[in-house]
């Protein structure tokens, strides 16, 4: 998810993120996953009914912090569309939240400069990988396979290949075999467990991840291969 620049009603940039949030309304507490946060507000995708102007209390569980303070908030927008939810403006100051939002925003901008090519014949796997990569801000081009995928991978602006090592590309060749001969950039291959015994090609800047993919391991591999291990990605607690 790329940076959402602020418009007339949003005076600060909001950054794609993934953190656990508790919203307290009277004597009821509901936990959500928030994927849109700024230094002074957040947006939560939910079908739960909220009202504009409603006062709430919010606890945001930031990665690497031992205590999640309770902040006062006000509902400033309720959306009923397919991607509906509630926007909450936080009141008061939270230094850790502000620092986290700024750092995460910087990481998102760095990831947004990277172009990835995803080659995956399985629709469910494509959806999963596309979702994770999109949340983290990467530019992603998607192919099921075929000559068009290998042709795109030869373009200089591509920074990384990710996908199924057995996907068929040009001349019906397995992707891993093709990449070992033609692709010099970083590679992440996602493979099924039964492939462990196969003689799979490898490269210096290649990573193999076994299905089902651990999101943390995938993000760590991406940061190591593309950002030198400097980036930090939020994870749901």
Short description, anyone?
The chain is of the alpha/beta class. It has helices at 95-111, 123-135, 147-153, 175-182, 215-227, and strands at 15-25, 28-37, 41-45, 55-61, 70-79, 85-91, 115-119, 139-143, 160-163, 187-191, 206-210. The two termini are 19 Å apart.
Salient structural properties:
237 residues, 5-stranded parallel β-sheet, 11 strands, disordered N terminus, disordered C terminus
> Could you give the order of the helices and strands?
EEEEEEHEHEHEHEEH
Q: How many E-type strands?
A: 11
Largest sheet: 6 strands, antiparallel, barrel
Give the number of helices: 5
The proportion of residues forming helix, as a percent range, comes to 10-25%
Uncertain regions spanning at least 5 consecutive residues: 1-15, 230-237
Global mean pLDDT: 80
Radius of gyration: 20 Å
**Strand fraction:** 25-35%
What general form does the structure show?
A: elongated
Describe the strand arrangement of the main beta sheet, using strand numbers. 1-2-3-6-5-4
Could you give the distance between the termini?
A: 19 Å
> Which structural class do the helices and strands define?
alpha/beta
């Amino acid at each position: 998810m790329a940076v959402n620049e602020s418009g007339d009603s949003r005076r600060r940039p909001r950054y794609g993120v993934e953190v656990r949030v508790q919203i307290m309304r009277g004597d009821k507490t509901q936990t959500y996953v928030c994927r849109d946060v700024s230094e002074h507000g957040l947006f939560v995708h939910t079908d739960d009914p909220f009202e504009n102007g409603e006062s709430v209390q919010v606890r945001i569980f930031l990665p690497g912090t031992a205590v999640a303070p309770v902040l006062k908030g006000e509902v400033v927008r309720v959306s009923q569309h397919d991607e509906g939810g509630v926007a909450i403006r936080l009141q008061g100051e939270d230094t850790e939240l502000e620092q986290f939002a700024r750092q995460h925003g910087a990481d998102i901008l760095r990831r947004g400069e990277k172009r990835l090519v995803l080659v995956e014949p399985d629709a469910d796997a494509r959806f999963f990988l596309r979702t994770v990569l999109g949340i983290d801000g990467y530019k992603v081009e998607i192919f099921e396979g075929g000559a068009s995928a290998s042709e795109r991978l030869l373009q200089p602006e591509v920074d990384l290949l990710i996908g199924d090592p057995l996907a068929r590309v040009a001349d019906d060749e397995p992707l891993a075999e093709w990449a070992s001969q033609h692709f010099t950039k970083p590679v992440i291959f996602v493979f099924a467990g039964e492939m462990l015994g196969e003689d799979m090609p490898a490269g210096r800047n290649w990573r193999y991840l076994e299905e089902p993919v651990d999101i943390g391991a995938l993000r760590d591999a991406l940061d190591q291969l593309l950002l030198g291990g400097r980036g930090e990605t939020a994870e749901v607690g």
